[in-house]
Write a structure and sequence with these properties.
Layout lengths: L1 E2 L10 H12 L7 E4 L4 H5 L9 E4 L4 H9 L4 E5 L11 H8 L3 E5 L4 H9 L2 E5 L3 H16 L9 H5 L3 H24 L1
Parallel strand pairs: 1-2, 2-3, 4-5, 5-6
Length: 188
């Protein structure tokens, strides 16, 4: 499942669709990809008409509805593509880890985002443009689903670090330290 807009820039699914197409032609594609929030279905499937049965597009839904849909999904798709000079770190990565689901990430390059996902520990990372790597991750995920081996992340220590309450507590601590330093500075 993926929620958000697709674009030719930061969230380009082309390489994923290409890998899915190869698997479909090999009669090995056993998945449905649900994409919420992108109305341009025909634009994306124009080059991949064979995937019409495997990719389901939904119009915009409210955020809480997307999260409910994600809760019922087996795997969450994270796209951070076409960022060769910089690294795109989608905010939805934090929402995804809170759900503890396996994450299939297609990224431009290894860096901060891939490190973050590897610390999460329930990730399947592919570099965009490496269709074979994407295909292998899809095969791995489909096999785990078939064998009932898809699991929730158990790295709760890492996940809890990004809880909004924990983040707010950390911010308050920083503000208090800054205020204390400010008081010390004005007394001198």
């Amino acid at each position: 499942m993926y929620f958000g807009r697709l674009s030719s820039l930061k969230t380009n699914p082309y390489n994923l669709f290409e890998a899915m197409s190869i698997l479909k032609n090999e009669n090995k594609l056993r998945l449905k990809l649900h994409i919420i929030g992108s109305n341009n279905k025909n634009d994306w499937l124009e080059k991949f008409p064979e995937l019409v049965e495997n990719i389901i597009f939904y119009s915009y839904k409210r955020h809480h509805e997307c999260l409910e849909f994600a809760t019922s999904s087996d795997v969450l798709l994270l796209l951070a593509t076409n960022m060769n000079d910089t690294e795109f770190f989608p905010a939805k990565a934090f929402e995804y880890i809170k759900l503890r689901k396996p994450i299939l990430a297609i990224i431009s390059k290894r860096g901060e985002l891939s490190d973050f996902l590897e610390n999460y520990g329930n990730e399947y990372i592919s570099i965009e443009g490496n269709t074979e790597e994407i295909k292998n991750n899809l095969i791995n995920l489909m096999q785990k689903k078939r064998d009932n081996l898809l699991q929730l992340s158990d790295n709760m220590e890492f996940i809890k670090k990004f809880d909004r309450k924990k983040q707010t507590e950390n911010l308050v601590t920083i503000f208090n330290l800054l205020e204390k330093d400010e008081c010390l500075y004005t007394q001198q």
